Amino acid sequence: MTLLVVGGSGFIGLNLIEVLLSSSEQVISLDKSPIPPAAMNVFSKLPGKFTSIQLDITNTGDVDRVVSGGDVDIIFYGAAITAGVEREISDPLSVFDVNVIGLLNVLKAACRTPSVNRIINISSGSAYGNGGFGDTGWKDSLDEFGTREDPQTLYAISKYAGERVALRMGELLNKRVINVRLSAIFGRWEYDTGVRDTLSAPMQATLLALKGATALIDRKEERDWTYSRDVARALYKLANHENVKSSLYNISSGKPWSVFDWCAVLKMSYPDFNYRLCEFGEVPNIDLFGTRDRIKMSPDRFLCDIGYTLSADLNEIFEDFKIWLNESNGFWNLET
């Protein structure tokens, strides 16, 4: 089976490629940016076959040649610009070029390619928008079809639009499209790609721990943080499942915890590291990207249909994460 990962050089893409290659799959990565050298070093030791292609997904002809010429069976669309406020102001078109237009290009190419039997669009919990904070009347765990979405930021709007576009194109062109909404993700291969403006709070804390610094946090948040490698495994399970019943799934651990909990785990391995709440007038060095926390996303539909549970055991997660930190030595430049 040949699997195409669009956005393979990004945070989720690298995790997905690692899981696919570990399972001896044939994988093609499509991205404007190269695969980081530390990732290539790890991938080269895995049993699967890997091809990396650099191109701009907004170029229709280039995308069509890759998709139609590679005997691709399954496509994961994970290319994204995760825009913060500054990018929303300075370069709003780029958000939609990648998050919607690039997706359309891949969908059109896939629909002209007989070998492609499934397209998984990797969306985000941000598509819930203000509905994810209970502003549209939903107070329980966020449900794929029960919670009314109200996206506000350009990133959230583009991800929600991408979901609707993907479903419609799949219907028109008779291809199976599945949208997935990822919760708050952190972990292996997380880095500032240049198009990702929101490095997770657990990773920010990890970088401070590696330096033996002190994390200053302005409040104790609580989110359904979910480990990136578990997300990649969930996506692979979804790709292989024969009887996928839904067109939309949340992918989440479903269990909220705080970056303070993660800091406590870090402290056990990095004794020079400290963490605390900010005192009056102090500036935090952990950015939580907001003053309130989204309601946790329900993983029940994914568990019921696909049969996979994502871990919320921080000690278990950290053991795997620490192995990656050691294996990928040099991935992060800690001097900056």
Task: Walk me through what this model shows.
The protein is an alpha/beta fold. It has one domain (2-195, 226-255, 296-312): Rossmann fold (3-Layer(aba) Sandwich). It is 39% helix and 15% strand. The chain is built from eleven helices and eleven strands. The chain has helices at 11-22, 37-43, 60-69, 85-90, 92-111, 154-173, 201-211, 228-240, 259-269, 300-306, 314-327, and strands at 2-6, 26-31, 49-54, 74-77, 118-124, 177-182, 185-186, 214-217, 226-227, 248-251, 274-277. A seven-stranded parallel β-sheet has the order 3-2-1-4-5-6-10, with helices on both faces. Helix 1 packs across helix 8 and helix 7 (201-211) packs parallel to helix 9 (259-269). The longest helix is centred in the N-terminal third of the chain and has 20 residues, at 92-111. The radius of gyration is 19 Å and the shape is globular. The termini are far apart. The relative contact order is 0.14. The mean pLDDT is 94.
Please summarize what this structure is:
By secondary structure, the protein is an alpha/beta fold. The protein has helices spanning about 10-20, 35-45, 60-70, 85-90, 90-110, 155-175, 200-210, 230-240, 260-270, 300-305, 315-325, and strands at about 1-5, 25-30, 50-55, 75, 120-125, 175-180, 185, 215, 225, 250, 275.
